[in-house]
Amino acid sequence: MDVAVGEFVTPPPDSDLPDETYRVVGLPEGSATLLLVTVDGRRASTGKVVHVDRTTLSGFESAPDPGTGFDPLGWIRGEVAAIWHLLRWAFGR
After folding, report:
1. pLDDT tens digits, residue range 1-30?
2. Confidence (pTM)
3. Is residue 76 part of a domain?
4. Structurally, how many domains does the chain consist of?
């Protein structure tokens, strides 16, 4: 599989990596740097970076961008969290 920086991939079923979506963030000589971008199938800012060699990367499959589309439940969760933090700040943390 030929990939470019910015593309999304999923590991093969026999991989030691969790079955989540990763974004290719670097392609140094002979390896690939991947950033975990989903947790439990939902977009997340994990900060978890993994390195795999290019031969391992060839077994990965292309994946759609997990951030596409509107998630009403996610939006509601975000609004509730924002209100909660505002109230904590306003009433003495």
Report:
1. 688 999 999 999 999 999 999 999 999 888
2. 0.69
3. yes
4. 1
